[in-house]
Design goal:
Blueprint: E1 3-4, E2 7-8, H1 14-39, H2 50-53, H3 55-64, H4 67-97, E3 101-105, E4 111-116, H5 119-130, H6 135-139, H7 146-158, H8 165-180, H9 188-194, E5 205-208, H10 218-221, E6 225-228, E7 234-244, E8 250-257, E9 271-277, E10 288-293, E11 304-316, H11 323-357, E12 361-362, E13 365-366, H12 371-402, H13 408-438, H14 451-459, H15 468-481, H16 485-501, H17 508-528, H18 533-561, H19 588-600, H20 608-619
The protein binds flavin-adenine dinucleotide.
Length: 664
């Protein structure tokens, strides 16, 4: 007698028993099969050493850094890349799983306002010091290249930092402000700590600007008052509505100095800049109460608090009424950090998406063998490359400015490019993150893959450190303040680079588009003139996007022209037999290989890959609505459907993107 799972075979019932037995065995098999499926559902997408895998970054460094600097930097970045994958990335996930906890009262009813952060978060602070993530820029070991080197480390760190990039941005900004003030004696200790490599000494800083009545409109929204004390210090009274990294050691903040009658000057002329310690040596808050922690969509690893300043002791560090000018140095730095974060999150999402394409099978073949999927990734890749090159350009210029090596033109260009890059890459990163999420299908939406965390954290990049509109207006301000000089420098820089690229055949279409875009821009500016403030204001966003697209387009052309970018592994046109001897420009066989290679990061032939993608985009019909005016017209009667009254001349209305590659 055979006994299977309680079933007995009895003589005479053999047929029936054997059927039952078969069913049971099938059940078993199904069960096993299910278990197998559960265990081997899908290989996880991964990234390796982000420095070694980033061909564009490596070729950029190779082309630009002096050999001695490159040698040292390369060694350090390779080591850092390994540390990120093996040690820092797991901490980052721990920070996400253990967000800060706020305890207002202790068990006995005493107000304690304790913001408890996890061990991994505190470890991030130590690592930041050990790696010199702030120090590098201020030690200037590599002269003008130190800032770029620091930015590269921050770029690699950003998407593994568990949100710690935010306090680092403000810390860098605070160090910059103190340095620009000549490091006064009273701030020497703070400066040394902000730029220290010693984890025991290292401080982070907050930047407390936003109040209830205004984050953008700080000039009118700041209510905080400062009262002078007999010892020359001040006491601050007010309410700070958004204070990120509220566990920081110090902060820079704005307040209005009250006179003997308690009156303050309103507007930006009434604002002064103050330095304060958040806690004293015993860890007691500096007459500050934490109202609550913000319940945020993303950046949950980091404590963002609402704070009451109830006589917080502070030191005036700007001239009275010059607070906005003094803090602008901080904003320039935090905005550059914002660009770093944007590029880093795009790079991380695309790297993971690329790896997934090599592992996931759909319709009987890997995703990487589906041309349309590869085209989607390639388009994202082009976005991140443009953004990366723009970032490198900015930190290169900043490095020159900080070592007194920048020409007047370079300083003007830097002034213009910071807001342009911040506003453009913030938007780009959100679009790329959403697109990349889709490239994982349903898995992209699953919380425990970590992908939604990247998306959520990316979405804030267009809001903090100045929204898109506010930065667009800042771009206009830079034009007005320099009496058009920034624009003249911008145009002459782009024109010069275009001349260099125009000799390369693959780039001729892109160069032509850039020329047309510049022409549109010049036509627009001539039509508007400096008088029509409203027109300029309404066009500010489109105008700034145009500048960003033109500049990144020209950066990409330059990178391809000089072969920085590792655009490798493309087909030679003569290999395409069906098209041989005819016009090959839209041949799908020719385009498929370079586009795939671009998407997978395996391209070998300078220029061809991006040019191919551009050709492909050009071949597509223009989508309806692409040429319609992007500006809303509140003054127009609704439903007229006409833009004849549009204050923006038509020259600007069609997107003057030179890059052809802006489908997002
Ligand atoms: C997660 C997070 C952390 C933050 N951390 C900090 C921090 O540490 N320190 C700090 O100081 N702040 C911080 N902020 C605040 C942030 O900087 C502000 O929210 C931001 O500057 C916008 O200000 P607001 O919220 O007052 O919006 P508003 O200024 O009210 O803007 C609302 C909308 O109106 C638009 N708008 C406003 N004025 C104009 C105009 N003149 N023309 C056209 N459009 C306009 C804006 O673009 C925006 O879309 C943080 C915000 C977030 C989300």
């Amino acid at each position: 007698m055979l006994n299977v799972k309680g079933i007995k075979r009895i003589v005479g019932q053999e047929q029936q028993a054997s059927m039952k037995e078969k069913r049971v065995l099938e059940d078993w098999e199904m069960h096993l099969a299910r278990r197998e499926t559960e265990a081997l559902f899908q290989e996880q997408p991964e990234t390796g050493n982000q420095y070694l895998e980033d061909t564009l970054l490596r070729s950029y460094l190779k082309t630009h850094l002096p050999p001695k600097v490159l040698e040292e930097v390369h060694r350090d970045l390779e080591r850092f890349g390994n540390r990120l994958v093996t040690k820092i990335q797991p901490l980052s996930w721990e920070c996400e799983l253990n967000p800060p906890v706020f305890r207002q009262y202790d068990a006995w009813g005493q107000r304690v306002d304790d913001i408890h952060t996890c061990t991994a978060w505190r470890r991030m602070k130590e690592i930041s010091a050990e790696e010199g993530l702030i120090a590098e820029a201020y030690e200037k070991r590599y002269s003008n290249w130190s800032r770029l080197y620091q930015a590269v480390k921050l770029y690699l760190f950003s998407s593994s930092s568990g949100g710690f990039s935010c306090p680092l941005a403000m810390t860098d900004g605070a160090a910059k402000v103190i340095e620009s003030l000549g490091i006064p004696g009273s701030l020497k200790n703070a400066f040394d700590r902000l730029t220290s490599r010693d984890p025991k000494k290292f401080w982070t800083s907050g930047q407390w600007m936003t109040e209830r009545r205004g984050g953008s409109d700080v000039a009118n929204g700041t209510e905080t008052m400062a009262r002078k004390q007999p010892d020359g210090t001040y006491r601050l009274y007010g309410f700070k509505w958004f204070t990120s990294a509220a566990d920081s050691d110090m902060a820079l903040t704005l307040a209005r100095i009250a006179d003997a009658e308690g009156q303050c000057t309103q507007g930006s002329r009434g604002l002064s800049l103050f330095f304060l310690r958040v806690r004293d040596e015993e860890g007691k808050l500096n007459s500050i109460q934490v109202q609550r922690l913000k319940d945020k969509l993303g950046t949950r690893q980091m404590a963002t608090a609402e704070l009451w300043l109830q006589g917080a002791r502070a030191e005036l560090i700007s001239a009275e009424g010059r607070g906005v000018a003094a803090i602008s140095n901080m904003l320039n730095i935090t905005r550059i950090h914002n660009v770093i974060g944007a590029v880093a999150s795009m790079r991380r999402m695309i790297s993971l998406s690329r790896d997934y394409a090599r592992k996931r099978v759909a319709f009987g073949k890997l995703l990487k063998d589906h041309p349309l999927h590869m085209q989607t990734i390639a388009r994202m890749e082009v976005q991140v490359r443009g953004a990366f090159l723009l970032l490198m350009e900015i930190v290169r210029l900043l490095g020159l400015a900080e070592t007194n090596l920048a020409s007047q033109q370079e300083q003007l260009l830097l002034r213009l490019l910071i807001p342009v890059a911040k506003l453009y890459t913030g938007k780009q990163a959100s679009a790329v993150a959403v697109e990349a999420m889709e490239s994982f299908g349903g898995q992209g939406y699953m919380e425990d893959t970590g992908l939604p965390v990247i998306l959520r954290d990316t979405l804030v990049l267009s809001i903090w450190e100045g929204t898109t509109n506010i930065l667009s207006l800042d771009v206009l301000r830079s034009l007005a303040k320099s009496q058009g000089q920034v624009m003249a420098v911008f145009l002459s820089t782009v024109q010069k680079k275009l001349e260099l690229a125009s000799g390369t055949e693959e780039l001729s279409a892109a160069v032509q588009r850039t020329r047309e875009a510049i022409g549109n821009l010049q036509q627009f500016m001539a039509a508007v003139g400096s008088e029509q403030a409203l027109t300029m204001e309404m066009a500010a966003r489109d105008f700034s996007y145009s500048l960003a697209r033109i500049y990144t387009g020209r950066q990409r052309q330059e990178s391809q022209n000089h072969g920085w970018a590792g655009w490798e592994g493309t087909l030679n046109p003569t290999q395409c037999h069906p098209c041989h001897g005819r016009d090959t420009s839209h041949c799908p066989r020719l385009l498929q290989a370079p586009v795939s290679n671009l998407a997978l990061g395996t391209a070998r032939d300078p220029g061809t890959a991006t040019a191919a993608l551009g050709t492909l985009c050009q071949a597509l019909p223009t989508l309806p609505g692409n040429n319609s005016c992007p500006i809303s017209h509140p003054a127009l009667p609704s439903g007229t459907g006409s833009h004849s009254l549009c204050p923006v001349p038509p020259a600007l209305v069609p997107s003057p993107s030179p890059a052809l590659l802006e489908p997002l």
